[in-house]
Hints:
elongated, three-stranded antiparallel β-sheet, Nuclear Transport Factor 2, Chain: A, alpha+beta, five-stranded antiparallel β-sheet, 3 domains
Amino acid sequence: MRIRTVWAIVHRWAGLTIALFLIVAGLTGSLLAFNDDLETWSAPRLHRVAPPRPGAAMLDPQRLRGVVLARHPGGMIDYLPLRFATGRSVVLRVNRIDQRTGASVPWSSRWDELFVDPYSGRTLGHRTWGDISEGLVNLMPFIYRLHYSLALGPWGLLAFGVAALVWTLDCFVGFYLTLPVSWRRDHASAGRRAPKWSARWKPAWRVRWHGGKHRLNFDLHRAGGLWLWPLLLVFAWSGVSFNLAVVYEPVMRVFGYQRLQDGIVPLADPRYHPKLDFRAAERLGRAIARSEAARLGFTIDSTRDSGLLHRPDAGVYAYIFSSSADMRATGGRTVTIFDSDTGRPLKTVVPQGQSGAYAFTEWITAIHMADVGGLPWRIATAAVGLMVTGLSVTGALLWVRKRAARRISRTRHALRAARS
């Protein structure tokens, strides 16, 4: 069996194995490219707010946090957005300490997300993220769950990660199969001159629209995959980064990749009540960010996202802000981490300029999540999702036709053998 035939079989079965995953990921990804808009459309009462009067000011984030915690005795808010979007609610997660286990759990067993009016602190509603039984308010979160795990929890997450890894490897197999075969000896012995290699590869990039259904399917599958190949590889490998860190991180460490949490040692007992409260932590975080910006040579962008995260399990605060080093449209990817008791700075992570492997990861995940390039890239991402679905469908149709042809061939051979 020729090596090309072997790789063709590998490509065929790899594609069939992951076809369902890619169809689901493609269709749901096309919707998730417009997640914010669709969230507002499907759950307006949770997401939309109007100022009580023209020019009304929103509450200070720390004050809003205090108002919410006053309504939830024993509650903790470990992540606080420090910049509110005009016309949008603020989404918070309120936790409490489980007296039996000592672990942090949702404040209520009936919801894990709280939607608050930033002008008044009034509660707009709540939901359990991703629970489709709650109706339209959870439509987009449920689509998100389908996108990365088929809504099957940890096992679905792992299955999608394996599918992304197979897809990544199959990208290279598929690319190899588009390359022209070597100029055969019988052609040379017949005196035929070999065309240029590029001329023999050129048909792989074309779609013959009038060559019959099978030829059209084949050309759409081959040419579509070839034209989209760089993006397919980016979406596949970034999928591995999301779902299969056990593979992604060791591979990328070869190129100098470090995780955000590397060097932060978990505590034996969570520090739920640090010496630095949220207000003090915000002030210190801002000061450290300014100092680090001067040291590392970036500028702080106060017009985009920022927030403060408390990690009791590690005894740290993470001040998250936007900077000139962020490539994402929403920003909020530059982070400085400091001790939640002493305020001692521990590390600052910048999306670009420190580690090429980390910057690469930031780029491919931003592309995957349509968080670069504004509306044009969101439209392009939705189109790519539909094209991924199309490649999976055309690949499956090619397999069905080949399988039917083999069955017909076997039947004919059996009939001939019976007659003889």
